C-alpha cells in the first residue's frame, strides 16, 4: 500500500495541478486553430521581447505555442508525470511570459515592477512561477506524489515484466 506521505503529497499537488493544468489546456486549445490575424498579433507581441521569433511563420509560431501549452497541461494533469518534471515545464514557460512582462514597453509603471493595466495580463503569471517552483521543490525533496501513490502497490509486478 502507498505510504501516507505519498498520499499527502498527492493531495497537496492535486489542486495546483488540476487548476493550472485546466488553465493551460484551455489556453492551448484556444490557440490551436487561430486565424492569421490572431497568429500575427501573438507573434508581434512576442517579437518585442524575443526578436528571434520573427524568423518563424506566424501560424507555425502559434501552433508551437499551442502545442507547448497542451504539453504542459498534459504534464500537470497526468498523475504519472513526476511533480519536478511538470514543475520544470511550468517554471520555464512562466519565465518566458514574465520576461515579456519585464521587457515589453508599457507593461510596467515607470521605474516600478507594478503593472500597468495592460501589464496585469502578464504580471499575474507570477503565480504560475510560484506553482512551478512549488512542484519542483516537492518533487526533489523526496515526495513522490500521485504517481508513486497510485502505482506503489504495482511497482513490483511492473518491474518483473
Distance between the amino and carboxyl termini: 20 Å
What kind of sheet is the major sheet? none
Structural class: mainly alpha
How many E-type strands? 0
Helix content: over 70%
Content of β-strand: under 5%
Radius of gyration: 18 Å
* Coarse shape: globular
Brief digest:
By secondary structure, this protein is mainly α. Helix content is 70%, strand content 0%.
How would you describe this structure to a colleague?
The chain is globular. It is built from eight helices and no strands. The longest helix is centred in the first third of the chain and has 28 residues, at 4-31. By secondary structure, the chain is mainly α. The relative contact order is 0.17.
List the SSEs and their pairings.
Layout: H1 4-31, H2 36-47, H3 58-77, H4 83-103, H5 120-123, H6 126-140, H7 145-151, H8 155-160
Can you give keywords for this protein?
161 residues, mainly alpha
Amino acid at each position: 500500500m502507498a505510504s501516507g506521505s505519498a498520499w499527502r503529497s498527492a493531495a497537496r499537488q492535486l489542486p495546483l495541478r488540476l487548476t493550472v493544468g485546466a488553465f493551460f489546456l484551455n489556453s492551448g486549445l484556444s490557440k490551436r486553430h487561430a486565424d492569421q490575424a490572431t497568429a500575427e498579433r501573438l507573434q508581434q507581441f512576442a517579437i518585442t521581447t524575443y526578436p528571434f521569433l520573427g524568423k518563424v511563420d506566424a501560424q507555425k509560431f502559434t501552433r508551437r505555442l499551442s502545442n507547448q501549452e497542451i504539453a504542459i497541461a498534459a504534464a500537470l494533469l497526468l498523475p504519472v508525470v513526476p511533480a519536478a518534471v511538470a514543475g520544470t515545464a511550468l517554471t520555464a514557460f512562466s519565465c518566458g511570459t514574465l520576461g515579456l512582462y519585464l521587457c515589453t514597453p508599457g507593461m510596467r509603471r515607470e521605474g516600478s515592477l507594478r503593472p500597468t493595466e495592460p501589464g496585469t495580463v502578464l504580471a499575474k503569471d507570477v503565480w504560475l512561477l510560484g506553482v512551478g517552483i512549488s512542484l519542483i521543490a516537492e518533487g526533489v525533496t523526496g515526495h513522490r506524489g500521485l504517481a508513486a501513490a497510485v502505482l506503489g502497490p504495482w511497482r513490483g509486478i511492473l518491474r518483473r515484466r
